[in-house]
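Researcher: Sequence of Glutamine amidotransferase follows. Predict its structure.
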Amino acid sequence: MSASEPLIGISTYLERTRFGLWDVEAAVLHRGYLDCVVKSGGNPVMLPPVGTWTAETIGFLDGLVIAGGADIDPAAYGAEPHPMTGEPRRDRDDAEFALVEAALKLDLPVLGVCRGMQVLNVALGGTLHQHIEGHNEAPGVFGHTGITVTPGTRLHAILGDHTTVQCHHHQSLDRIADGLRVTAKAPDGTVEAVEMEGARFVVGVQSHPEQDIEDLRLFKALVDVSRRRA
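Model: Prediction complete. Tokens:
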């Protein structure tokens, strides 16, 4: 394959879906993820939450996106479910924890989006606040919040001191896993981004950059780092 077109794996949902004549279980994904990867110079590869994901089976990838989605099972970080926590999707939890483990073993560039940042934190031993207010205006409606980015971080080099992001979440990072550094916060103190110190590129954001096809800074940064491996 051309070094100018790295393969970027993206985790997917497994949902009951209607299309054409069918109403079936399907692996699905917001198209924004695909478009952002393509417009940033990569080729997207959808990774369903089935099968076995290891360093050997994802070795063909050049980078990885852990996409947004449902709440992580609180049992994964030793907690009892909060009344506002959604039904667990253990198949997706298991698949994405395995993808993170494999990607870190391979030193693949990783971008965690919303749930994806939470997966990264839990996979490395961190915990979550199971419910917060003010970051989810309405079901299916993305809100906006300004974030402040820590100078001297990879994220600062990408986004600068401040930026406005789109958000849709009711959970957030609590105890930060060893090896991760907080790199951005919202005005109310909510952790908006983390990155792994010493890694080639492991960045998690609580926001949804795939919802703004005109702002490709995060996806382009991921693809550019991945291109060096391709």
